[in-house]
Amino acid sequence: MTLRVLAAMSGGVDSAVAAARAAEAGHDVTGVHMALSSNPQSYRSGARGCCTLEDARDARRAADAIGIPFYVWDLAERFHRDVVEDFVSEYAAGRTPNPCLRCNEKIKFAALLDRALALGFDAVCTGHYARSDGTVLRRGVDPGKDQSYVLAVCTPEQLRHALFPLGDTTKAEIRREADRRGIQVAAKPDSHDVCFIADGDTRGFLAERLGTAPGPIVDAGGTRVGDHDGAYAYTIGQRRGLRIGTPAPDGRPRYVLDISPATNTVTVGPREALDVTEITTGPPVWLAPAPAGPFGCAVQLRAHGEVHPCTVEPAADGLRLLLAAPARGVAPGQTAALYDGDRVLGSATITTTLRP
Q1: What digits encode the pLDDT tens for the residues 210-231?
Q2: 226 annotated to bind ligand
Q3: Which residues does the annotation mark as catalytic?
Q4: Fold of the 4-187 domain
Q5: 299 contacts 339 by C-beta, under 8 angstroms
Q6: Which of 54, 147, 353, 356 lies at a CB distance of 3.0 to 4.6 Å from 276, suitable for a disulfide?
Q7: Start-end ranges of CATH 3.40.50.620 in the chain?
Q8: What job does the chain carry out (predicted)?
Q9: What gap in Å lies between CA 146 and CA 177, rounded to an integer?
């Protein structure tokens, strides 16, 4: 069946090969690059990020090599509102956001897909490493590149209109294929870190927008052991950059255990105090039929993170996850993606955690 496909082309090798595969499969493919910054020169370039002028040019050259039409769509205002402002407000509230996941949810599979469907396209094609038949989302076969976690926020309707041509292939094979196809970005490094933080300094980025807000760093007993310039600059599980002047009595490293925006306090303690045995979430998004009662599955708590066996129970406003063994470094604001083997069942945002 021939589809009208809009291929999201970031300027990298993955999205270029995904578009090429969709065209080779006989679909009517149009490439589009999303301009996500009103001033793209200020975003970092090369291997350190994405969404630059260089990336837009690379995407256009790839589309020419494939032989498909190509356009640039300005989604900068939507990206700033739904991803950048969300990132800042989540940190201000003491939570830990995932901007790449939010970009997939709000930009690629909301703004982009909505516009594509309105223009008569049947599907959006992306370079994510995941597998889907339109109804079931599964992990990609390359465990080092699997991106099903950041796609777990998609709704069943969005999944029905999504193509992921790379899910059955490893990254090394994709680079070789790009070279064979004459796509110039075959050896282009993957982007890293947060694309909208030009110098990679997340703390400085947040301070510029939220200002300084000095406060105490305390241990689990409430004793002040240091000072900070803003609790928003810390994340649960963080070890480095804590600015603690007083060593722990046992001489062991200390980690961020809690962030309280209400009191502007950061609490630190030993690594084992990070253990979490129970998680509550907000309302889930199901990619499988919603279970009526408790059930067993696996949960992934961060991109490329460990998978933890758990029991899931319905809760008043979301889910309650009972972990079979403690997990560490779990923070409110992160996404809990639920799996049955390699199949994604659904996802929900973590609201609270419980320690033993």
Answers
A1: 999 999 999 989 999 999 999 9
A2: no
A3: 103, 195
A4: Rossmann fold (3.40.50)
A5: yes
A6: 353
A7: 4-187
A8: Catalyzes the 2-thiolation of uridine at the wobble position (U34) of tRNA, leading to the formation of s(2)U34.
A9: 18
Tokens of 53: 């002028």
Q: Is 150 annotated as a binding residue?
A: no
Q: Where in the chain is the domain with CATH 2.40.30.10?
A: 275-354
CATH number of the structural domain 275-354: 2.40.30.10
Q: What mean pLDDT value characterizes the chain?
A: 92
For residues 243 and 97, the model is more confident at: 97
- pTM for the model: 0.92
Residue 1, helix vs strand vs coil: coil
Q: 293 near 255, Cβ under 8 Å?
A: no
Tokens of 283: 């309302």
Q: Is 1 annotated as a binding residue?
A: no
| Closest to 44 in 3D by CA, of 192, 184, 258, 158 | 192
Q: pLDDT digit string (tens) for 195-209?
A: 788 777 888 999 999
CA-to-CA distance for 326 and 277, rounded, in angstroms?
5
Single-letter amino acid code for the residue at 302:
R
Tell me the residue type at 171. Answer: K
